[in-house]
Amino acid sequence: MTRLINQVDAIVADGLDGFCAANSDTLVLGEGGKFVCRRKTVPHKVAVIGGGGSGHEPLDIGYVGHGMLDAACPGGVFFSPTSDQMIDAVEAVAGDAGVLFIVKNERADVMNFDHAAEIVSEHQHEVRIVRVCDDLAGGADSAAARRGAAGTVIVQKIVGAAAEEGTGLAELQALGDKVNANTRSIGVAMRGPTAHDTTEPGFEVSEGELAFGVDIRGKPGSVRALGGADAIADKMVAAILDDLDASSGDVLFLVNGFGGTPVIELQVIYAAARRLLEGRGLNVARSLVGGYVTSLDMAGCSLTVTKLEDDMARLWDAPVHTPALRWRM
Amino acid sequence: MTRLINQVDAIVADGLDGFCAANSDTLVLGEGGKFVCRRKTVPHKVAVIGGGGSGHEPLDIGYVGHGMLDAACPGGVFFSPTSDQMIDAVEAVAGDAGVLFIVKNERADVMNFDHAAEIVSEHQHEVRIVRVCDDLAGGADSAAARRGAAGTVIVQKIVGAAAEEGTGLAELQALGDKVNANTRSIGVAMRGPTAHDTTEPGFEVSEGELAFGVDIRGKPGSVRALGGADAIADKMVAAILDDLDASSGDVLFLVNGFGGTPVIELQVIYAAARRLLEGRGLNVARSLVGGYVTSLDMAGCSLTVTKLEDDMARLWDAPVHTPALRWRM
Fold first, then answer.
1. Is B2 on the interface with A (CB under 8 A)?
2. Contacts of A1 in chain B (CB under 8 A)
3. ipTM, two decimals
4. Is A224 on the interface with B (CB under 8 A)?
């Protein structure tokens, strides 16, 4: 398929140029394109920094701004950013209140953020790390084995709001860990992402089938014939509620498009899944439907449920002004 | 390809159910699913109403809310809504200040909105119509022959902001006509939308080629080999500036994804096209990059340029709170 790019190895740099030019009122691109950060740093606030492979836009760069991240480090497409990117981002945005890294639980991301944390600790910055591991793809039974997916946006939003209010580093880490513990995602796809150095999608399933438990880099999970939207939603909601201990109370519910699915299909799945969540005794108190964590042009979607406890709903509602999430400013 | 739907003929109804449930804090679904409107109507304000075929989400239903539309009427997928939908929408939201229809210049849409305007005029509502015809697809030389595309969102936003401030009907119509006259769009695609009653995309071009001048319903235009993003942007910007009389001053620049293109490619095209616009003496004063007017899962994008004259930039910046556009609230 023809792609809207110049050289394959310039995609990330070209994309960052466009992204930062379009958002130059609030964001700037760090030297060498190593990170994106807010135009104005906020003194005496914990610096909240994210990052990960590119190709998942708007994650993470689209969530830099008031009420969410202070900076984000984009790697190559589906490749972790390097430690020097995070170190430079810390030097650019960190004040005297410490640094919180929000990291998707992917091996290379974890390794590189851990290494960066070690280095910047030596430079007098206190650093804590929240690992997001919401993705039930692959049927991982332990939190340590689960990877990070669309729940990352929810952790970034709630923790970012608390940081903006002046919450301290240890408390922010505890909050992030709790939001993560309260969050599960599951993804399905009909067609994998088409990498820019290939001409074909990573996978395609037959008509009537779905890759169940696809991850955000397009690893297809198990292929199954599930039926229509109601049946698909039923299996997805069951997978989430089998693992997440939630039978009453308020939840935040995110239906996330992976980049190649019509919006109207996301709305159909939302309707079906919401009915199921309510049938299981949950109150869908907050919702988000759209392409928030994509996988290039993968066709499919993920569902994410977060149990809203303590102050989480208020922090979710707090003002946010980023390229991809904006409200109440 | 497997789709995330139940019955094909229930897609629009199922999608509206999901959409309205997800946005129930601000929006309601009209009786029989004929329209979506604000939960709270605003007295003594011109009622601004849009509508058109479904499959272009978030257009039009996603732009209902404070600062944009009062109601929107969704038709079948790529099919015009019927006159009774608009008539019911008017009865639900119109006060004593009149009604403005913002209509994409498509034959059936125009006919049905015209008919509805005739009927509601008999019911003591003063009605004016703004036809949006920004789309250069097909190389249409006259405004009357051009169809409505992503520029619709810009007309809705600027006119909606003025309506919220209490601007009168005749002045709103003149404003809408002027924004439309100042706006041109051109689209390209590599793969057409896959209708839900078929298994294959409407069209696919060969590697290295593009359908140039695709319209938002997936009519492919002419197939050409243009090269990479820089060359593609060059042809698109040239098409717009050949028709739009703009060689200096501020413009609003929208890069719109059609539903199946990775966000990072939209950012690459934005960077390339912005450089070209600036090279032609224009100042890109406002930008928007994302899937604002889709065509199901069509892979491709459109560029839209609006010359910002008079009060347009201020009205663009005014507070807006809709599912798909939100800022400064």
1. yes
2. 190-191, 204, 207, 299
3. 0.97
4. no
